[in-house]
Amino acid sequence: EFSDCFADIFVAIEPMVQLQAALRRQGLAAYVFSNTNELAAEHIRRNFPFYANFDGYILSYEHGAMKPDAKLYEVVEHKSGRRSADLLYLDDRPENIVAGAVRGWQVILHETPEQSRAAVQKLGLLNHE
Questions:
Q1: Calpha distance 63→38 (Å, rounded)
Q2: Is the alpha carbon torsion for 54, 101, 97, 60 positive or negative?
Q3: Would you tell me how many other CB atoms lie within 10 Å of the CB of residue 128?
Q4: What is the rounded distance in angstroms from the CA atom of residue 22 to the CA atom of residue 24?
Q5: Model pTM score
Q6: In angstroms, how far is CA 95 from the centroid of its own chain?
Q7: What tens-digit pLDDT sequence spans the chain (129 residues)?
Q8: Burial grade of 1 (CB within 10 A; 0-12, 13-18, 19 or more)
Q9: Residues 113 and 13 sit within 8 Å (Cβ to Cβ)
Q10: Which residue, of 14, 19, 40, 50, has the fewest CB within 10 Å?
Q11: What distances in angstroms separate CA 125 from CA 31, 33, 48, 60, 80, one per listed residue?
């Protein structure tokens, strides 16, 4: 009962779910890269079907580090097999975006779904759907 109450703070942001699906349809890999805990991760797995549509998951509690610690960004590079500008990173925290930019990643500070989608389109990574 506690875990359900504790973790029930999430809502699906449908335009972002659609953006991720569109990128996947174009053959781009997508990973969850999150500062989270086991209770929250399990809650999301159980309650949000879109969460199964990722190529991998880099969750802070599994690696003993939290964004913006460089260790966690190294895990992303290792798991994805990509580095530098081959990575596009969206996050809503400026300090996390800075840590990705320092590594040469393409970064987008997520503020609204519309702004994020426009930024992805501007990078030429998304066909107009």
A1: 12
A2: positive
A3: 5
A4: 5
A5: 0.89
A6: 15
A7: 666 666 667 789 999 999 999 999 999 999 999 999 998 899 899 999 999 999 999 999 999 999 999 999 999 999 999 999 999 999 999 999 999 999 999 999 999 999 999 999 999 998 765
A8: exposed
A9: yes
A10: 14
A11: 16, 19, 25, 27, 17
Phi-psi region of 127 (alpha: psi -120 to 50; beta: other; left: phi over 0): beta
Beta strand pairing call for 88-91 and 56-59:
unpaired
CB 76 within 8 A of CB 33: yes
Residue among 74, 71, 102, 100 nearest 88 (CA): 100
| Residue 65 half-sphere exposure toward CB, CA atoms < 13 A | 14
| Residue matched to tokens 């504790």 | 6
